[in-house]
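Data availability excerpt. The first of two example chains:
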Amino acid sequence: MGVTEDINWLKENEGGAKVFLLIAGRLKDGLSLRELKESYGSEDWWPVKAHLRALVDRGLVEASEGSYRLTEYGRKKVLEGLRAMEYVKPV
C-alpha cells in the first residue's frame, strides 16, 4: 500500500476517515476507545472498532498506552498528503 492508495481509501471510507481525523485532531495525546466512540457519535462500539481495526491493519493508526494515535507513516505521509490536497484543514 502506498500513500496515494491510503488517501484514496480514506476518501472512499467515510467512517474510517472520520476516525482517522478524530485521532489526527489529538496528535500528541491520542484518543482512548471510549473517547473515540463518544466523538464518533455511535451508540454501538462495533463501527468504531471495525474502523480502528482497518486503520491499524493499513498501518495508519497504532495502539499505545491505552490510546490510539497516528503512526509516523499516518502522520507524516497520509495526513500531510490530505492536507496538501486540501482535504482536511490543518490540525
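And the second chain:
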Amino acid sequence: MIEELESVVLTVNMPERGLQAGDIGIVVLVHEEGKGYTVEFMTLSGDTVAVITVFAEQIRPIRANEIAHARELVAA
C-alpha cells in the first residue's frame, strides 16, 4: 500500500485540474486503507497546483528506473 508522504505518479489526465498522466505528487492522506488518496501536486518551485482525492487506480508508486521530466504548467 502507498503510504502518506510517499511520492506517486498520476496515471490519468485531469485537464480540469491542469494535471497530466505522469505528473508527480505527494500523498498527504490515505483513505479507507488505500482505496483512495489525497495527493498534492506542486511546481518545482514549491507552489501548490492542486490537492486532489483520487482512487487507488489513478496513481502508482514511482519506479526505481524512472527519471523525472519537467513541463510548463498550463492553466486549467
